[in-house]
Amino acid sequence: MDGAKGAALPLIRHDLGLSYGQVGLLAAVPLLVGGFLELPMGVLAGQGRRRRLVILGGGILFVLTLLAAASARSFAVLLAAFVAFFPASGAFVSLTQAEIVDARPDRQALAGIGALAWLGALLRGRPKADGGRAAAEAEDAEQPPWTARARDVAAAVKDWGTLRWLLLIEVADLLVDVFTGFLALYLVDVAKLTPAVAALAIAVRLGAALAGDAALIVILERVGDLTVLRASAVAAALLYPGFLLVPGVVPKLAVLAALSAVTAPWYPLLQARLYGSLPGRSSVAVTLSSAAGLAGGLGPLAVGLVAQGFGLSWALAGLVVVPVAVLLVPGRA
């Protein structure tokens, strides 16, 4: 939905008469309110059958929120649909990622493709007979109480080895999802390109990011994850200013494709490090990610407010500091 929303934002802004501040609210409020609603999800869902039922319910709500957003005719209705989408996505995608990490901890950097496992969760969660039902009930009974999981969350918050990955995920997101959200508006309002070209740019960005994800699978067989993270940060530090400064449609799209490919590994690598800092406690990682997302929601709001006061070009120029943070914060493994 993020890619489609970003591509449509210039037309949505025109049709609904939105300011940059309202655009920032469309990105920030779902993260803040929806993140608050999602906050206890990882702890309460736990593992096993209960988690799979939450995943299935999230998938249904995921589809309903898309339909609501598509039919919205006012800022309020659109904002409400975006807010509902956030916890639906958390239940559908984040918990599926946790399920994959628990099943294959040696391949946790691939958790970003978790949405493909929704059907698998459906089939796996369906009891085959009385014995299967009894096994599922036994699986639920073996789970630690939610109070124990809450204590795990409190302990993890005190661990810098976990907190630094939470921090970096939100900082890196400024040049991933937040930038994607404002990209089409930048190309239409600042670069003076047509909405059709802006939509093409979103498609180029998503396609290049997918290619970067695919390449990451091969690269990680040969190179360590922190080496990949630092190399991509250096490349992004050069490519992002280049994208803002280079004139012409084709050069901009070419630089954008390269930038999207090199920043694609950030989310899966940082998420993998977060899960790796909490072995066997993937539900805790989901809860902490939701909590960090509340603070991360201020990012798009800040970009929108700066754009409202000083212009969108200045607002996006401030994101040049993000690759520096990605390069410096991780430290040693």
Written account of the structure:
It is a single chain. This protein is an all-alpha fold and 333 residues long. Helices cover 80% and strands 0% of the residues. It is built from 17 helices and no strands. Helix 2 (20-38) packs antiparallel against helix 15, helix 4 runs antiparallel to helix 5 (75-103) and helix 11 packs antiparallel against helix 17 (322-328). Mean pLDDT is 78; it is low at 110-124.
Keywords, separated by commas or semicolons:
single chain; 333 residues; mainly alpha; Growth Hormone, Chain: A; 80% helix; globular
Q: What oligomeric arrangement do these chains adopt?
A: single chain
Quote the distance from N terminus to C terminus.
Answer: 34 Å
Low-confidence stretches: 110-124
Classify the secondary structure makeup into a structural class: mainly alpha
Q: What's the CATH C level?
A: Mainly Alpha
Q: Major beta sheet, specifics?
A: none
Please report the number of helical segments: 17
- The CATH superfamily appears as MFS general substrate transporter like domains
DSSP strand content: under 5%
How do the SSEs run, as a string of H and E? Answer: HHHHHHHHHHHHHHHHH
Compute the average pLDDT: 78
> Which overall shape is indicated by the principal axes computed on the Cα atoms?
globular
Number of domain modules? 1
CATH topology: Growth Hormone, Chain: A
Give a nutshell description of this structure.
The chain has 17 helices and no strands.
SSE layout and pairing:
Layout: H1 2-16, H2 20-38, H3 41-45, H4 48-71, H5 75-103, H6 118-124, H7 130-141, H8 146-157, H9 160-189, H10 195-219, H11 225-245, H12 249-263, H13 266-276, H14 282-296, H15 298-310, H16 312-317, H17 322-328
Helix pairs in contact: 1-9, 1-10, 2-5, 2-14, 2-15, 4-5, 4-6, 5-14, 8-14, 9-10, 9-13, 9-14, 9-17, 10-12, 11-12, 11-17
